[in-house]
Structures are given as C-alpha cells and as structure tokens.
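Homework help board

Subject: predicted structure for assignment chain

Our instructor gave us this sequence and asked us to write out the predicted structure in token form, then describe one feature. I got the tokens but I'm not sure how to describe them. Can anyone check?
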Amino acid sequence: MPELKRWMSEDVYLWIKEGDEKQERLEKELEENAHMRLFGEVGSDSEDEGDEHDTSPIDKTEKKKKQRIRKWSSSLTSSDGVGGFHSTDSSNQNCQDGDDGAIQIVYILSDSYEGFGDVLWSSARYVANTISNPNQCLDLLSPLQLTTGNGNHHPLHARSFLEVGAGAGVPSWAALKCGANVVCTDLSDTNRIRSMAECVERNVRQLVANNETDVLTEASRARVCPHDWGSSTEGVLRALHSSSDDQKESQRLFDVIIAADCCYMPWWHKELLESIYNLLSDKGVAIIAWALHGNTDDQDVMKIVDRARDRGFVVEVLDSQQLTPPKAGMEAKQGLVHIARLTKPLKSASSADEELADVI
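My token output:
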C-alpha cells in the first residue's frame, strides 16, 4: 500500500488501509476455519471428505490474486483490442503486443462484486481502443475540437479526463498512456479503489521503463478516488486539482468524461447523469457507452438517451459497434456497444456576460 499512496488523497489512503485491515482479519479467520475443517473439526459432509483435487479457501484466494493481473493492447485492426475477453482466453496473461504503435496497458480485476468488477466489458474495450488511436479519438470527441498539438502529442495530452464507474479502468489507463490528466473513480469499495491505484502504479512504471518522458508529467498527476453517483463531487474535483496551485486551474472541470457499461442498472441513471453534468466543463464531452446485459428490461436501459436529454444534455447517438462479448456463451447483444455523446448547451452571449458580472 505505501507505494500506492501518491495516487490518492490522505483520506482515501486511510480509508483503504482500514478496509485492507478488515479484509486481513477476515482472511485470517477463514484460514483458521479451513485448518479446522482439514482435521475434521467442523462438519462431516461427504463433500468435505475426499476429492484430492480440492483446494483450501486460502489456496483458491492465492490463485485468484495471481489471475487478477491482466494485459490489454490497443489495435488498429480489431475493435476489441488484444486481450480482455472470453473466459478461455488464457493469453490475457501474456497477450500479444498488438499493432505497431499500439498502447499497451496493465489492468487489475477487482475481486469485489463478482460478475461485474471482475470482468472487462466490451464497452470499456471499445472506448479504450478508440481513444488510443489519435484519429479515432479526434472523431469521437469532435465537439472538443482537439488537435495533435505541439510535438505531435496525442489529442488527449494535458486534457482533464474522468472515468466514472470505472471497474478495471481500462479507458483511464489508455488515456493515461496518451498523456491525459486522469482521475479514475468507482463506487466506495476499498478493494476497487486500491486495485485502480495499483493500475496507475504499474502503468506509470512502464512509462518510466520505456523512458516515455513526454507523457510522464501528466501521468504523474493521475489520481483515484471513490465516487458514488449523485453524491458530492468535492472529492473528485479535489483529486483533479491536487497537484495544482493555480487558482484559475482549480476552478476547472473535466474536458472528457467516460462512463463505460454503467447503464445496466437503469434505476441509477438519474444519479449517473447528475454526476456527469456537475463534473463536465461547459465545453467538455461525455461519452456513455453500454451493452445490454439482459439483467433487466432492455428498453429501460436504452432510455439513458432520453434521460440525458431530460437532464439538459445535448445528445448525439453514434453508430453502434459489435465487439466480442467478454465471456464465452454470452449473447451477441452483450458485445454490441451503443454510444451516446453528451455535451452541454452552448451558452448565449448574454448569459455568459451575466455570469462574468456575478464573478466581478
């Protein structure tokens, strides 16, 4: 944990430390109970008696920890990128390098919320692969009027970038490798936030090892923090401004916000959109990408578009993209990525003048 401290605030660090200590106590208790079971002191069911291939809960925990570290690479030829899908895809551990100039990242699967936090969903792969390609990134975020900038920098270089409901955070780490000023958030679960901090550490170490000094300055500003949709945005903005003493910059909101596969719980749409609206700059762009998981009514999930308009966003629905579902046996619709691009309405000159007068 100490080496991860620089990627979060002191409050978040202490919160995660406390959560880890609780988890250690739980695992210790699990180990003690497993020891008792091995010697027949707990129960006598036949299922506990005999398969020589059975492993203890501790062995299973250690195996899961080793499987949590994965690799993914962007690709010019595959919208999936390389790695990150199919349960039989053992090559995830040592995926190919992808195309020349591909962005290669390490990501950590959180062991919380099985079936959600431990899956790299298609929408995350789509967003990460798209923003990794400078030309595709320019197109996806066209309302920002990005350019490649001086020194042929990636369009995201020095732009403020937020991911909400990040899970494994693959779009965030792709943006980090592009030189964006990244803040990565997920719900208030210590395991998830610590896993995201480890992702930052591992990917920054890769940048250092590869001597990619052109993006290291911005990458070193990356932060992770918890954010529950619809709650106060203070912690997220503090994470964005933590490395700046510039008063003007401290008033800045996010240029780019990503929500990848966050729509499968339509009862949270209102709160999700509220967080995005309150954190997006007036000229910023938010990308919501989602697939239909089949866990609830599909039409209700698709209402995210209407709900975004009701919240006051200008919404453009982009062409859907068919990617590979994350696990074998899933329906094609679980890999069909729908994309909505959100911006705020342009302010009239009079309203801008009124705001300036209020400041003065």
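Reply (TA_rk): Your tokens look well-formed. For the description, you could write something like this. The beta strands are 69-73, 104-108, 160-163, 181-186, 223-226, 254-260, 280-290, 314-322, 336-343. That's the kind of observation they're looking for.
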